[in-house]
Amino acid sequence: MLKKVDSSQLKVGMYIHDLSCDWMTHPFVRNRFLLTSEDEIRKIINAGIHDVVIDNAKGMDVQDAPTLDEAQAATEREIVEIVAKAPVITRVSLGEEMQRAVQIRHQASTLVRTVMQDARLGKAIELDQVQPVVQNITESILRNPGALVGLLRIKNKDDYTFLHSVSVCTLLVAFCRSRGIDAETTHQAGLGGLLHDTGKALVPDAILNKPGPLTDEEFAIIKRHPQDGYNILRQSPEVGPIPLDITLHHHERRDGSGYPSKQANDEISELAQMAAIVDVYDAITADRCYHKGMPAAAALRKIYEWSKFHFNPKFAQEFMRCVGIYPVGTMVMLESGRLGVVIEPHETNLLAPKVNVFFNTKQNLYIKPETIDLSRGLGFGGGDKIVGHESPSKWNVDPMRFLTLA
């Protein structure tokens, strides 16, 4: 049986099933292993990992610990209460914005690729090329945040590094807007999001794209990228303090377990704390060569759990309201047994979005696509209910094909 336990309860002889942290945090070459020494326990605690999942069928038990299902169910209830009533404002439909979003995605990812190449060659960042891209992203978010955010869920291992930067920029701009931050500060935060991983240009591709876990030495090289990125951006005098701060401090954690400066609590600026949440959310929802991305709802649960120690809980909750429990592009299972892709959040009830249904799981076949507004009753374009998110790979379907149905 899988159980959720506090790291202080760990003992030699327990079997770690999940270290319950993002993949770039823990110092182990495996995610699942038997604890064989006190040194391993110290490494877990020193890495800022505050709770883990153990398997008592493979090792020692903690009698009064909640099962993983119990812990997740409790967290889900809290998240639903936080997120369900967040307001949503869009100016144009998803279909109207999607074509522009496709162009912006391509433009932005091409720019980040160029920035990385220039950084490798020792060239200074040309900010006049970056500014318009951030402006285009911001304007797209204002028109319909779901289009670009949904589109950026699609990444492959060849363009992940570039699209991750575009995603962080997009999500950070949306986060700033949802918090009512002024336009100029939002723009500067967007610049920071787009440029935050510039230091990865100096990380060898063999490490950056390694299909397996990193060694301690490789992990140490990866951890240099915030400082390297900061040093690169400082070569361009027109890059302001906000992008520099986000680049240097997006891996800091409020409990002091982050890097490079081990800043803690409010030593970390507000925007760097926001960027840290966005960066982790996008990383854990993306497929990588060494792990499968998790659905948005599961990622929000992780963000919420980690906010007890790593993130500002207030910011984490505001981010969850910003992206919603079922963001555009999420594949969901309906009570009827049909699969659908979320195309538009409801203005006030994020548990009842509009979805395009396209697959019948009971008959295991595609059906004629249909748009359903889950906030409406039977006979009024609704009459169904989300029972949970689903993995496209489980059903061997591509929900993004049905994202822009009329």
TrEMBL record:
The organism of origin for this protein: Rugamonas rivuli
UniProt-recorded name of the protein: DUF3391 domain-containing protein
Transmembrane segments: none
Domain HD-GYP positions: 139-335
Sample GO molecular function, one term: phosphoric diester hydrolase activity
CDD domains referenced in this protein's UniProt entry, alphabetically: HDc
